[in-house]
Amino acid sequence: MLPAELIELILLRLPARSLVKFKRVCKSWKTLISSSDFIKNQVQLSIMAEPAISELHLVYSNLPRLINNEIGFIPIQSLFENLSFGTEVVYFPVGGYYVNTTGTCNGFLCLTDLPCFDFKVRLLNPCIGLASEWLTLHSEYDQQRPISNFGFGYDHVNDKFKILTVVESSTRIYTFGAYSWITVQDIPLHPLEWDGTFVTGTGTLNWLATRIASSITYPVNQTAIVVLSFNLGNESYGQIALPNIEGGLIHCT
């Protein structure tokens, strides 16, 4: 039998598509391949072998559609180099009923699926063909209490991807890998957008928000608008004041 160290070295040099299958071989392989250290090392080796993996990609989709949902991706560099010849779009089937892209982070897309009964999400990295299973966030029994706000991002402190949902001001966090939900502090303001924008440098999800519900009707007084920020590391809310522009209004776009 091969030593564990040699098995790890062999697995590190395999493509991600093969590793997804090999996680089913045994529990020890599944634990190894799922570990954050293994994933980081495998990505680094893949980039050394195929530098194109680390390039920026333009994501194309035919979503949302009721059938044949697909995600396509195009290396940005190839657009500049082959404009006169056209660029091939590589498609990746994503399944689901009514799928939409609701966030991106560290090469992963967060896809949401909203059929008649359940609200589901999955993570997808189309460049390496890695995808999670669909996760039900909201069941048919919760339809009277819809998700009012949503966010997807990366917690660099704990090295985990996380999803945030708000239902009737209650904030819940799902951590990928830990397979767990926790409830944190209630959302303190009224976001003007459904999905939050993730900022990599700060590790935060952000929404334009208002302190008073009545101000969501337009025109909006700029003094009522702030940036509501949620830190995925310490799982708490904060507020950032918008710049004071003399003689003008800040418009929500």
From TrEMBL:
Domain F-box: 1-42
SUPFAM superfamilies: F-box domain (SSF81383)
InterPro entries referenced in this protein's UniProt entry, alphabetically: F-box-assoc_dom_typ3, F-box-assoc_interact_dom, F-box-like_dom_sf, F-box_dom, SCF_F-box_component
UniProt-listed Pfam families: F-box (PF00646), FBA_3 (PF08268)
SMART domains tied to this protein: FBOX
PANTHER family: BNACNNG10540D PROTEIN, F-BOX PROTEIN CPR30-LIKE
Xref: NCBIfam families: F_box_assoc_1
Protein name: F-box/kelch-repeat protein At3g23880-like
Species for this entry: Arachis duranensis
